Amino acid sequence: MTSSPRAKRFNWNDLGVRVLSAVVLIPAAVAAVAQGGWLFLLLVSIGAALLSIEWALMSAPQAPSRVAIAVAAGVLLAVFAGDLGDFSAAFVLLVFGAAAAGLYARRLGASAIDAAYGVLYIGWPCVVLVWLREQEPDGRAWTILLFTVAWASDIAAYVVGNTFKGPKLWPRFSPNKTWSGFVGGLLAGMIAAAVTVGFVDTGMRPVTAAIVGLVVALATMGGDLWESALKRRFGVKDAGHLIPGHGGLMDRVDGLMFAVVAIAAARLLAEFGGLA
Fold this sequence. Notes:
This protein is mainly α. Helices cover 75% and strands 3% of the residues. It has two domains: 36-134; 137-276, no CATH class. The protein has helices spanning 12-35, 37-59, 64-83, 87-107, 112-134, 139-164, 179-196, 206-234, 249-272, and strands at residues 168-170, 174-178.
């Protein structure tokens, strides 16, 4: 009778590398969010450009440089329009940028659909993030809440999942994620939101913030799973190798890209729907 395979031990070395990476990345993000203005725009622009490069490397390995330029151009034009305060134009530019990138990729022999989707996949959350930070008078508070909940749920899902393990969440596309990590991430997102509103003024009570935190944590893990499915489709393990312990930048912000849309919806409900 053969014995069942031993459970994989917690990888403390990998966690240490992740923590060191976070020590570098988190202060930069916090400083940009706190400052706003040109510094925040610079952070978003650099992130959009790097994400465009990683997307092109995954989706168009036959012409990565030129597809990356096309995707980045479509995204950055929309981001700059949003920074100028014209968000209607920003979303229109996203659509036209996606179409232009797709046509250009097709001429290069790459997938038009993948290039067009890359502009929308990267550009939509970037424009929404700029919109969120520019809201007055509480844009900074809501942006801090976004990062706090997304980071807390992501870290907790990793630690809890690797500690307790158990049944796999979606083994077809993401064999390392577990239901225990999923639950841990949701709880961490709720707690992080309830605690954060005690320090920043979003106009929400802790109980309401916990509900928002649950939704944002769900979006965070949904974004993580979606990127796992995309990587499986393109046959790659990581989106890139920029960040030690995390792979590429997309591997680090995949959940945040979905979470920002969820928290922007909560911000709109707070303003027009009486969310408090």
